[in-house]
């Protein structure tokens, strides 16, 4: 059914960021229209960590309780050198006065989206799918006329770009999107040899009982450049629920100028071979089933501004539409959700006052945090990227020493959890 008429707020993109913005507006009595070009909610190896600060923000819009029971409450991240742990980022060790949510919630992004969408539907807001935005222009009425691929259009006072790193909304608004270090535009395509690659996969593993892998924390094996994150077994994979088998997100880092480039969608043979080569443990680990996998190029970019007036309409950006960075530390979905809640409140305030200073402040504050996250994830990626040998041994010694210095260990936990961005 074609979209027509007018809406106060049009949110383009029904990922966690677009949905969180719509929920925030709904709690403030503003009903947004949410469109997405996809026909159904996707499942893929995307975000799977929800940090403490994000849970705090979600509590303010009444949805944190809906999330707590859909995943694993992880104690934190354990970094391994060879077979032994060298640094334990202990989120569970944060005091009760630090946060109500002293854990990392491990759940696939698709599950968070499901919870968000059900929450919205209960409040009379539905995601309108198969609706691809292809253009907009100033309307003679209040706002922008937004055109969709099916030939329909809608007038909106506020257009929110929550449509990812290749954002159509950002592109139509003419907002530059560049790497803050190199000033290279995101849409430019330099040689893949200059980028680190990450293969992310959701898999069922059969792990020998002698392997002491944490089942309540994320494990980063730096010598092998491979990560293991425990997840709850999806309902559709219950037939794999057997002794020794469990469900995991794995991340495999491939440094720049690597001799081998992974396929865009790796198969089970490729992933098993990579696990065997990287040898996170002496005993073998068997990959019983590949659920989903994809390879991503690690790039950083930030929009010049997260807000732009177009005629008498307002264009606003959240999440990957506004910033992208390394997946190290699982900050992407978290930063985007916090953007979205802040933007929902800013839109409500602007509806009330009409003062563009509200959006200028939103853009400035959220961009400042995005820049901090980009720098932090770049540093973590550099640590992962250190080649084995004497440099890796020195890095491991320094990390092991940091593990015994409480203020340093606490500072790392504070930043990883997002609490530092309050």
TrEMBL record:
<keyword id="KW-0274">FAD</keyword>
<keyword id="KW-0560">Oxidoreductase</keyword>
<dbReference type="Pfam" id="PF01494">
    <property type="entry name" value="FAD_binding_3"/>
</dbReference>
<dbReference type="InterPro" id="IPR050641">
    <property type="entry name" value="RIFMO-like"/>
</dbReference>
<protein>
    <recommendedName>
        <fullName>FAD-binding domain-containing protein</fullName>
    </recommendedName>
</protein>
<dbReference type="InterPro" id="IPR036188">
    <property type="entry name" value="FAD/NAD-bd_sf"/>
</dbReference>
<keyword id="KW-0285">Flavoprotein</keyword>
<feature type="domain" description="FAD-binding">
    <location>
        <begin position="7"/>
        <end position="376"/>
    </location>
</feature>
<dbReference type="InterPro" id="IPR002938">
    <property type="entry name" value="FAD-bd"/>
</dbReference>
